[in-house]
Amino acid sequence: MGVAMLLACPMLYLRNNQCRAFLAVALFVVRGHRPFRIMTTNTNASRITDARRNPDGQRRSQADRSEAMRARLSAAAYETIAEGGLKALRMRSVAEAAGVSQGALLHHFPDKNAVTIAAVEHALDLARQDSEVWLTKVPEDPAALLKAMLAEFRAFFFSDRFWVAIGITLESSKDNELAETVKRRVSAMRKPVYDAWAERLTDAGWTPRQAERDVRGAAALVSGLAIRRFWTENDTVSDELLDDWVAERLRSPR
Fold first, then answer.
1. 128 DSSP 8-state letter
2. Which band of pLDDT confidence, cut at 50, 70 and 90, is reported for residue 200?
3. Mean per-residue pLDDT, 38-47
4. How far is CA 109 from CA 68, 113, 114, in A?
5. At what angle do helices 176-203 and 208-228 cross, to 10 degrees?
6. CA 20 to 30 Å from 53, out of 18, 32, 82, 225?
7. DSSP three-state, residue 59
8. What is the pLDDT of residues 143-163, one digit of tens each?
9. Cβ 254 vs Cβ 215: under 8 Å
């Protein structure tokens, strides 16, 4: 199976049992060493203080307070998984992490599936914010543009955001209704990022079709490397593969 399988599994579009089983083994390896915490994030739900007031001290509306509480609980669910793995996702644990009662949690998220969806949405919203930063400083030079895209994908696929999202995606496959909801949300939240990179490539001279293909190829390559590192020591081959991919894409018709 090896590298060919790694590159053939677009990580957020799992289509068959073989890919799911293969990635489940990867997540087992991650759990065996530590949970999904791979890189530090800035979202710590316990640091959110008075949701009743805006930063300027003015009292918030009920709708604003409700939205702030949902965000706080979503961040707590995400952090719970990132720190302790999926097995740590319990209603009580999320409520404790957010510093609220279970009743308050249940008011906003009535069951574990709702909390699970909130966690994956939070993970991908953090990834979206990261991507927006990268996209604001995209270089015009084609080679630098491709390297920037690979670097942004690497930042995502090697981060907690990805591991929380892929872990939830795999676990939800046991529940058809939840799996379908997760699939729709992941697709809807990642597609704008890929579309934005395709637009940047088009602006740099790529045809729309080739831009779409190169974005998808880059995502498949980097996500495969993200999985592979759990079985091998770090070396220079991964960087060489990425450099070769950039060189090949620059030689090919765009």
1. H
2. very high
3. 41
4. 14, 8, 5
5. 120
6. 82
7. strand
8. 999 999 999 999 999 999 999
9. no
Q: What letter would DSSP give residue 39?
A: S
Radius of gyration of the chain (CA): 20
DSSP, collapsed to helix, strand or coil, labels residue 36 as: coil
Q: Quick check: helix, strand or coil at residue 114? A: helix
* Residue 173, SS3 per DSSP: coil
Q: Which structure tokens are listed for 164?
A: 């929380």
Domain extents for the chain? 2-251
**Would you identify the CATH topology of the domain 2-251?**
Tetracycline Repressor; domain 2 (1.10.357)
Instruction: Calculate the alpha carbon distances from 66 to 57, 80, 90, 115 in Å.
Output: 17, 21, 21, 15
Between CA 5 and CA 9 the distance in angstroms is 6
Amino acid type, 90: R
Q: Which two tokens stand for residue 52?
A: 């009743």
- Residue 40 has a CB neighbour count (10 Å cut-off) of 9
